[in-house]
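User: Assemble these into one structure.

Assistant: Restating your components, then the assembled model:
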Amino acid sequence: MTGKMFGAPIPRTEDERLVAGRGRYLDDLGAGAYAAAFVRSPHAHARILDIDVGDALDVDGLVAVYTHDDLRGPMAEPLPLLIPHPAIRDGRTPHALAAEYVHHVGEPVAMVVARDRYVAEDIVERVRVDYEVLPAVVGVAAARRADHVVHPGMSDNVAARLLQEVGDAPAAIAAAPHTLELDLEIERSASTPMEGRGVYARWDAADAMLRMYSSTQTASGVRAAVAAKLELQLGQVEVVVPDVGGGFGVKIVHPWPEEVMVPWAARLLGHDVKWTEDRREHFVAAAHEREQLQRVRVGFDDEGRLLGLDVRIWHDNGAYLPYGVIVPLVTSTQLLGPYRPGAYRVEFDSLYTTTVIVTPYRGAGRPQGVFAMERTMDAIAARLGLDRARVRSVNLIQPDEMPYDQGLVFQDGRPLIYDSGDYPAALAALLDLVGWDDFPAQRERARAEGRRIGIGLACYVEGTGPGPYEGGHVQVETSGRVRVATGLTSQGQGHQTILAQIVADELGVPISDISVTTGDTRRMPYSVGTYASRGAVMSGSAVALAARRLRDKALRIAGDALEADPDDLEIVGGRVRVKGSPASGMDLGTVAVLANPLRYAFDEASRAATQFGGPADFDRPPVAPDDAPGLEGTDFYSPLRCTFASGMHAAIVETDPETAEIRILRYCVVHDCGRLVNPLIVEGQIHGGVAQGVAGALYERMAYDSDGQLLNASFMDFLMPYASEVPAVEIDHLETPSPLNPLGIKGAGEAGVIPGAAVLAAAVEDAEGFPITRMPISPSELFHLRRRFASGEIPPLRARRPAAPAPRPSGQES
Amino acid sequence: MTEQTHEIRLHVNGVPHTATVPARRLLSDCLRHDLGLTGTHVGCEHGVCGACTVRLDGLPVRSCLMFAVSAQGHEITTVEGMAAPDGTPHPVQRAFRECHGLQCGFCTPGFLAVVAAFLEENPDPTEEQAREAVGGNLCRCTGYQNIVRSVLRAAELAREHPGAEPPGAGAAAEGGRA
């Protein structure tokens, strides 16, 4: 299918509304609703002895205060463990309101409902909670030591442990001519969307129906979870996702404590209730990601070819495990990137700590995996004195090896089989784009000016578009306008635009006639959600399939009316016409009229569909047994397994010899997400991803003290980059279509962030001449590393640069 | 315990409004929840992200750092007031759409206010100046690259259609700073 809109860099259809201030985000809804606020634990670990609301009762505007004692049945039970996995030894999840223990600062202990948020927060301050403070467990090292245990009834802090093996890695390493061991560390960051979470609930007592709005990445997930908690039938709950001010993963978690408390209170009070998260709450009560310690053992040959790879990962999952082991599972599988690892052994421990939960943040464990693999590649190159690109190229999976089975089980429970990709072409394109071969000369020029610069590269493969499924519903109104619905939600990815582009081509209608609804269970109740770069792959495929069904039906009905063979018909510009005879045809709107046989006319157009309106075939009922009224199509796309996008990044950095400030001079991206639906949008996704990659590499971290207090829980102290910190990104696209879905597309949402820490560590290391094993890196950390390097405490990278650049010929010692 | 309230008059997008608010009511909350102008967004409530930026007598200010009661007597322009009276979008609004300068759109109204004010003072900025101009506002989606492009494109559009500046944007100077 080649059309005009698919592939066109058109401006987004969402934006006219958004730039005019006519967006509708969660807190824009629900004027007149009561406001909720939460009493949150000030301690990382404590037992609740008593909650005293006496002081709160005389505040004007108080509606209610609730604690765990007020909850019954499923509401009093822990929240669900969303993704069960056999590796989970003891999966703990929080309660809607803390039952007896709190396990991180920010955990909700009581809910206040009041006339407005100001009053609700006044009351929160008057609720007195007595705590018995218990020892905090902060960081992977403390969790492993298990001097203190986070959850009662456990003997250590290991929530889950998983081993996957392909071949005998320890034996392969033992037999290898060269071996290396690396200890690596990556710190916490977080999705940090500009809009926090929020929930607004309306209970209609007369109809016994709950309408809920949530700033979420899954409407259908929230619906099912809330129905179960509130003991409602699914049919009694509607979830509508309004405009969402960014998600980046954090909003796929559901139901949040607040997400069940707000509708529960709305039903109890018979009044609308709304909760809008504030920034501090988002830092201490939503979710973080990234923190891991890794130990890599690798065996390789003289050319740097991997023979065996043995990786041990210790993953901090925070206080609870609502999202299962997805993040470390992704790290441990996607670590392999575009390479053949030889024999591979990977084992992770997922550990409880008394800190905010860890659930997927854009990249979802991949940045850590890529960090491990790419640091290893650079270490191999340093050890052998080989060019870093050369070491990568000897390990790349070749295009003729596709599909390539890595022999592991991926995060969707299905085999890790790469469907397509051309990694050597991507590497060649990247080296060209960044000018890899010319860099040594550039370095020398800089050095002559007293400047210190370095270059790095990093590669990744990303499983995108996992199942189980998404659905599409496409309907042509009698006006000729086309309504499209899919169940997954949108947080700025431009789904309304790209889904309209796909449908426009499939149906042959102008994009201006198409409107798209996402994340509304009233329009498409069957759905999973927006995560793992699956929006375009899953919903794009589903709406394409649905549109194809609709098109077949339109041609059949028009064929009857025009007395033409449907095969001789085409749809152009919203009009069905006879090929080669464009004058004879009918508008799709008229076909929609005919598709719905009527008894009653309601306007001029509908007369044609009434029972005396025209000739009829008396041997057939008005609606055939295998047919349905209306010009619409519904279909679902369910993939065999993920489709694997890929990419490679290179960065050139300058490090200030005095201040150790790190400045990115160039940032280059080669990206392959299969066929591009809208290049403008894909590039926007890459830009945003790279910004988060840079943020996680150089600026952002969650500064917990040993008591489990988050010291930088504000935008004053958490260094989210401004325009001054984010480099311009140079992009080159490859388009290797996926054979797995009808459109040949792969996901693009997360890609930009994935190699950020790896590529910047490589570039800083190259500039400095000593290994960088821990990210993020701040100027003061680099400054201290320089001191340790100068004192001989840190060994140099082995001189690895040949005098003349020669990445492509076989390895040379320098 | 009952809170004292104040009746205030605010002039927003050329329209007079009254509201009854406690002294601590933030201008951002008053605009959004008392006047129903929800185009102004709140991203941090501590003056760092800039999402809540509106124009006060033409100057960009963070409406989360100002009390509604202290905005009396000033001309306030929000994103809802940027387009011309006939609905023609402001050049900055057009440019952000053309250049894909927004994704989730949450931070966008703040950027629009900042950029509109900036371009009135600097109609022909360099790329570096454009980047500097938006350097006080946070965006988590775009990586800023297309926002910088949008600033340059808006300048171009404004130059192509001089005098197309809608009121509210330029009314600035007359209002002065009280």
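Strands of chain B lie at 5-12, 15-22, 53-56, 59-62, 75-77.
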